[in-house]
Amino acid sequence: MIKSIQELEEIRKKALEELEFRKQHGEGIRVVVGMATCGIAAGARPVMLKFVEEIQKRNLRNVTVVQTGCIGLCKYEPIVEVYEPNKEKVTYVKMTPEKVLKVVAEHLVNGKPVYEYTIGYEENKEANN
Amino acid sequence: MNDLSLYILDLVQNSIEAGASLVKIEIVEDLEEDLFTITIEDNGRGIPKEVIDIVTDPFYTTRKTRKVGLGLSLAKQLAMDCEGSFTVERLERGTKIVLKMKHSHIDRPPLGNIAETLLALISGAPDVDFIFCYRNNQSEFTFDTRSIREVLGDDIPLNTLSVLDFIRSQLESGLSNLTGGVNNK
């Protein structure tokens, strides 16, 4: 199954660098994806994998992607929460892989949350309708 | 949910939440017997004896936030729709779920992207080991995270980006080599 020992050693080296970076820079940004039945049915899997892919592509070594169960707001799934140290949590709702691109570029890279994808924006919109 | 890989993702989430350290996922496509079987076995804390018979009831859930639990009931419904069967078994340690469907049944969903399901599981639960085994009448593919962990050592989590990338390429090449096709068709 393993292609070559050399390849894995290469990966081990890269992974150790990643870990070292995290150690030095402390707790980074955490992206939490809701993956209960409701989330999965609504499309959480491609959303989560898009985050992983984009973070990898941009080599954002201070970001980790994890998952959680039902966040309790099934009608807004897929839901993604972004936790940054010393900042308020941002909850994104009705996420899609396309929206992930913007969240990664604007929020994770440039530190500006994408307000129009957040739960606050969505609830306001519903209240005004 | 429109494909089987999403049902699998959902069912295995239960195993992770039950504190399993090892989950075995087996898919067998048997065209001779016209059967499509998915087996998920974990070593989690297991389902209490008192409730094992009612866990597939949508109005049973261990959750406190609301009164419905859909994962197992949806899987059971799917099995019933496809002239199959659905069993949940208590093991000495853990749980075993077997979902059988008639392979040729018109309502049987396609397998879908099983590589993505495994990647999502591994990246979300990097401390859990997964054994994935796919078999049809011609070929077999096995993937075991323990063999990767062995080479990498205990200090590198499986959800390190470069490791995930490696796992993705292993899965994709392994699955694409199968005749009979584990894919989105």
Question: In words, what does this structure look like?
Answer:
The complex is a heterodimer of chains A (129) and B (185). Chain A contains five helices and four strands. Chain A is an alpha+beta fold and 129 residues long. Chain A has a four-stranded mixed beta sheet, with helices on one face. The longest helix of chain A has 21 residues, at 5-25. Chain A is globular. The model of chain A has no long low-confidence stretch (mean pLDDT 88). Chain B is an alpha+beta fold and 185 residues long. Chain B contains five helices and six strands. Chain B has helices at residues 4-17, 71-81, 114-124, 145-152, 161-176; strands at 22-30, 35-42, 85-90, 95-102, 129-136, 140-144. Chain B has a six-stranded mixed beta sheet. In chain B, α1 packs parallel to α3 (114-124) and α3 (114-124) runs antiparallel to α5 (161-176). The radius of gyration of chain B is 17 Å and the shape is globular. Chain A binds chain B through residues 1-3, 5, 7-8, 11-12, 14-16, 18-19, 33, 35-38, 40-41, 45-46, 48-49, 52, 55-56, 61, 64-67, 69-70, 72, and chain B through 1, 6, 9-10, 13, 17, 63, 65-66, 70-71, 74, 116-117, 119-120, 123-125, 142-144, 147-148, 151-153, 155-157, 159-166, 170, 174. Chain A: InterPro entries: Thioredoxin-like_sf. Chain A: This is Ferredoxin. Chain A: Keywords: Iron, Iron-sulfur, Metal-binding.
Give me some keywords for this one:
heterodimer, A: 129 residues, alpha+beta, four-stranded mixed sheet, B: 185 residues, six-stranded mixed sheet, 5 helices, 6 strands, 32% helix, disordered C terminus
What's the alpha carbon Rg of chain A, rounded to whole Å?
Answer: 16 Å
Low-confidence stretches of chain B: 180-185
* Count of alpha/pi helices of chain B: 5
Count of helical stretches of chain A: 5
Structural class of chain B: alpha+beta
- Order of strands side by side in the largest beta sheet of chain A? 2-1-3-4
| Rough outline of chain B | globular
Question: Whole-Å distance between the termini of chain A?
Answer: 56 Å
Question: What class, by secondary structure content of chain A?
Answer: alpha+beta
Order of helices and strands of chain B: HEEHEEHEEHH
Number of distinct beta strands of chain B: 6
Helix content, binned percent of chain A: 40-55%
Q: What strand line-up does the widest sheet of chain B have?
A: 3-4-2-1-5-6
Approximate shape of chain A: globular
Measured by residues with Cβ under 8 Å of the partner chain's Cβ, the largest interface is: A-B, 35 and 40 residues
- Describe the sheet with the most strands of chain A: 4 strands, mixed
Secondary structure: number of strands of chain A: 4
- Biggest beta sheet attributes of chain B: 6 strands, mixed
% residues in beta strands of chain A: 5-15%
Distance between the termini of chain B: 16 Å
